């Protein structure tokens, strides 16, 4: 009984930790957030988006926004 309760506490703690620590956006070593744009598109994307199959140009999030790119609606990249 006591053991089962302990087990439940551990599981609950793990779920709590996962729920409140979503994976952080991919960041370069200098701390800037990296996103990707395409040659012809007007959106910026996060790594692995299907729209990056044709072309994939790495940019910092700040640069992408400054250059007028908007976040992709499919891959929900980080926003400033
Ligand atoms: Zn995308």
Automatic annotation (TrEMBL):
<dbReference type="InterPro" id="IPR035451">
    <property type="entry name" value="Ada-like_dom_sf"/>
</dbReference>
<protein>
    <recommendedName>
        <fullName>Ada DNA repair metal-binding domain-containing protein</fullName>
    </recommendedName>
</protein>
<feature type="signal peptide">
    <location>
        <begin position="1"/>
        <end position="28"/>
    </location>
</feature>
<keyword id="KW-0732">Signal</keyword>
